[in-house]
Q: What sequence folds into this?
DNA sequence: CGATGCTCCGTTTTT
DNA sequence: CGGAGCATCG
């Protein structure tokens, strides 16, 4: 549901707006009233129940403070109590506290919890929000100073991409060769690092489109300005520019924000770091809360370094460690701690608990991914039969592709589940379309929105017509809408599109007029109906059409909560989320990333295999840093569990349609033997699966040695060769695929396969078969029992 | 202009 | 294997 709006700023507040001159009346920390209030503080109820470290983190109000809060150590509690404390002791008004989070969800939760602690005062916290919503608020006030109007539009990723495509084509570059997606990624990474078009290193900018990357970046920014639009990155970058070019304005904010708090500091990128540093320069009352061991967003620009270097960047900083875990039982916590201790780049914390040891972390080997899903399904059924609540069970996967097989299994068993994550409400096509209509009604010059819906639903205004519109718009330097108005009066368009376009223009004028008298939700309703948009989905017979119509209804309904269309559009571009307040009895299925911040009694962790987790791509792209981030992900996964953590790996997994034999994750070796229990997979009926006795308890799991040792490789060969019911799957001497040692690429051998068409081969899963075709290292084999499959040659053995 | 084949590609995801 | 996005045909 749509959260109540606190993003826009229509609540008058005496402490808001251009430098309030009542700042002088603020109780300074030494004033009598402040001291009197401070004297009461120790008795304040909110401090009760905090442990020593937590309390220290709450009370260390002055100067830079870094709170290293391990998983489950009461981070949010400290943050909210600290804010309550600042307010209750009179150190600052709610409006003088800047509290930044990453997600809207976190912001909302914090606001609620502060409200619960100290009551309505939390309403006055107009500077509690995400980096982006706060950036927006600041930018709207000073938009003209950075070349924008205060009603600028915030572009979503789809608009961004469309714009970049246009920019690339306008430069005469082949978009197929140099895709907009790639440019978007590049520009995004520059913005993450706080780099404007002038600051990108020439070499780096040159990497795209034969040296034209920088030019494209600039052209893109220029286009944004013309459209009076910004993208997400700009919400921070333009603040930086504003403050650097107008120190007086920076000073206003430095004055205003007496205390600053940042949640999830380990996730900040360079731009966000610079943003914070500028603001904190004066008063230096910056409190960052985070956990370097939970930094899992490096791939999208987060800099673990920000948290690692905090003491260096903010001299004299107080560092407080929260190490007492209130979530997990002993074995789980020890396992997670020992695992994460293998990382080099960390500040180091030792989580401890006073809880009982509880159950050991289990490790179960499955024959293949299907088997793995089956084992998990069975375990869930057993737990459920033992009255374990399904909503206290989560399955955490590394990549979403793992979900399908698990879902299939759960469906088959009739276990209700929900997938967390996935496409956001406002990212859905129907929502973006509806919004585009409203944007055009609200702002006819919004070319991107106009272009998006001009032919949705299909009205016969295709590429040809759009091209003519574009040409005119560019030549006359007017928005598309205006170009259209001109063109319908001429003969340049064919009669049919011309008439259609004219009708559309008339409709838009009518809707705009309507919006002067009707409420915005009524306008929306009318627009969606009269444009034929709802009709389009009603006629659509596909399975999700009904859901889309439901989403549209939800959109219209939610609009009623806003004073005007403008503020609604603002909300939606930054904040709007899907309705996730479903508390029904279901197992949760999500990626490890999506699980951060959540906790469950029982957590299933499938797919702990080399290549999948740690993910090969992370290793290839980021080497050791990538490996460490993967390990942090493993740590996050384990620490989500309160009472039970169950790790699985499969010996065979299908990747891109081909079966690959896999090796258990090195993270399994990172776990301490004392806290782990190897669980024998029950005998199963898989073809060639574990038929008899134990296998992987013999794989010397906790020697701490690398899987690359000869002993390990022998163990592997032995395992595959003797324990699979007779079908030997020994990998041939030349081991294909990259070998990784601690994230460093050691060898990558490609080489054509020695198999010939017509030859007989034996595969570990499919048994004997005849080679039908050879394509590099891929073989098409007609298997005697399993039929025709494409397999990698390294998984079959030639038969004579 | 629109529907159907075809090729290509294949983490993680928030704002 | 399966989806998305594109190109070609009708």
A:
């Amino acid at each position: 549901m749509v959260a109540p709006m606190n993003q826009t700023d229509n609540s008058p507040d005496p402490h808001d707006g251009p430098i309030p001159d009542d700042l002088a009346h603020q109780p300074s920390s030494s004033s009598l009233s402040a001291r009197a209030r401070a004297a009461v503080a120790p008795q304040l109820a909110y401090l009760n129940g905090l442990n020593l470290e937590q309390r220290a983190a709450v009370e260390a109000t002055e100067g830079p403070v870094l709170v290293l809060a391990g998983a489950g150590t009461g981070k949010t509690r400290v943050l909210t109590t600290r804010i309550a404390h600042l307010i209750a002791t009179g150190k600052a008004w709610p409006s003088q506290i800047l509290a930044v989070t990453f997600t809207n969800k976190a912001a909302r939760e914090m606001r609620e919890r502060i409200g619960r602690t100290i009551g309505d005062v939390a309403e006055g916290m107009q500077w509690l929000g995400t980096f982006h919503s706060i950036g927006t608020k600041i930018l709207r006030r000073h938009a003209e100073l950075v070349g924008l109007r205060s009603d600028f539009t915030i572009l979503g990723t789809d608009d961004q991409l469309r714009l970049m495509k246009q920019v690339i084509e306008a430069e005469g570059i082949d978009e197929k060769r140099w895709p907009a997606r790639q440019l978007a990624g590049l520009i995004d990474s520059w913005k993450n690092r706080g780099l404007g078009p002038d600051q990108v290193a020439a070499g780096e900018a040159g990497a795209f489109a034969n040296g034209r990357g920088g030019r494209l970046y600039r052209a893109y920014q220029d286009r944004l300005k013309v459209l009076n639009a910004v993208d997400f990155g700009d919400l921070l970058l333009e603040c930086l520019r504003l403050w650097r070019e107008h120190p007086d304005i920076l000073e206003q904010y430095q004055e205003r924000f007496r205390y600053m708090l940042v949640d999830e500091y380990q996730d900040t990128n360079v731009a966000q770091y610079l943003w914070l540093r500028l603001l904190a320069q004066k008063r230096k009352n910056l409190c960052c809360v985070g956990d370097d061991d939970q930094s899992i967003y490096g791939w999208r620009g987060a800099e673990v370094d920000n948290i690692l270097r905090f003491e260096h960047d903010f001299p004299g900083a107080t560092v407080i460690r929260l190490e007492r875990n209130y979530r997990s039982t002993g074995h789980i916590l020890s396992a997670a701690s020992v695992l994460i201790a293998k990382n080099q780049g960390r500040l180091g914390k030792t989580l401890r608990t006073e809880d009982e040891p509880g159950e050991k972390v289990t490790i179960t080997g499955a024959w293949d991914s299907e088997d793995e899903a089956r084992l998990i399904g069975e375990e869930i059924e057993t737990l459920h039969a033992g009255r374990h609540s399904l909503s206290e069970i989560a399955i955490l996967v590394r990549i979403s592709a793992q979900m399908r097989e698990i879902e299939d299994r759960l469906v088959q068993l009739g276990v209700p589940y929900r997938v967390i994550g996935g496409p956001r409400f406002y990212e859905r096509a129907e929502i973006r379309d509806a919004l585009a209509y409203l944007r055009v009604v609200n702002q006819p010059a919004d070319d991107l929105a106009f272009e998006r819906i001009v032919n949705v639903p299909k009205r016969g205004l295709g590429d040809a017509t759009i091209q003519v519109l574009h040409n005119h718009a560019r030549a006359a330097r007017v928005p598309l809408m205006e170009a259209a108005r001109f063109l319908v009066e001429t003969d340049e368009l064919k009669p049919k599109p011309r008439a259609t376009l004219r009708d559309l223009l008339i409709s838009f004028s009518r809707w705009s007029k309507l919006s002067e008298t009707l409420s915005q939700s009524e306008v929306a309703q009318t627009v969606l109906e009269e444009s034929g948009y709802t009709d389009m989905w009603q006629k659509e017979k596909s399975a999700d059409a009904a859901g889309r119509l439901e989403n549209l209804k939800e959109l219209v309904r939610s609009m009623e909560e806003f004073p005007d269309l403008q503020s609604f559009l603002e909300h939606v571009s930054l904040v709007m989320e899907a309705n996730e307040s479903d508390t029904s009895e279901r197992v949760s299925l999500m990626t490890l990333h999506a699980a951060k911040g959540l906790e469950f009694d029982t957590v299933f962790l499938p797919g702990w295999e080399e290549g999948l987790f740690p993910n090969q791509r992370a290793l290839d792209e980021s080497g050791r840093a990538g490996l460490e981030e993967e390990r942090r992900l493993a740590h996050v996964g384990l620490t989500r569990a309160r009472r039970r953590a169950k790790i699985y790996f499969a010996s065979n997994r299908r990747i891109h349609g081909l079966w690959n034999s896999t090796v258990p994750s090195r993270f399994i070796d990172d776990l301490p033997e004392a806290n782990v229990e190897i669980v024998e997979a029950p005998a199963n009926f898989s073809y060639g699966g574990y038929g008899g006795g134990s296998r992987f308890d013999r794989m010397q799991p906790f020697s701490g040695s690398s899987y690359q040792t000869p002993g390990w490789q022998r163990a592997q060969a032995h395992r595959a060769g003797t324990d699979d019911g007779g079908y030997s799957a020994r990998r041939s001497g030349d081991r294909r695929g990259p070998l990784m040692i601690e994230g460093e690429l050691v060898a990558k051998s490609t080489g054509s396969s020695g198999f010939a068409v017509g030859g007989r081969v034996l595969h570990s899963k499919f048994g004997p078969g005849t080679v039908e075709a050879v394509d590099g290292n891929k073989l098409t084999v007609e298997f005697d029992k399993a039929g025709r499959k494409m397999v990698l040659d390294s998984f079959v053995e030639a038969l004579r």
Observations:
- The two ends of chain A are 65 Å apart (CA to CA).
- Confidence is low (pLDDT under 50) at residues 1-25, 685-753 of chain A.
- The first strand of chain A starts at residue 65 and ends at 69.
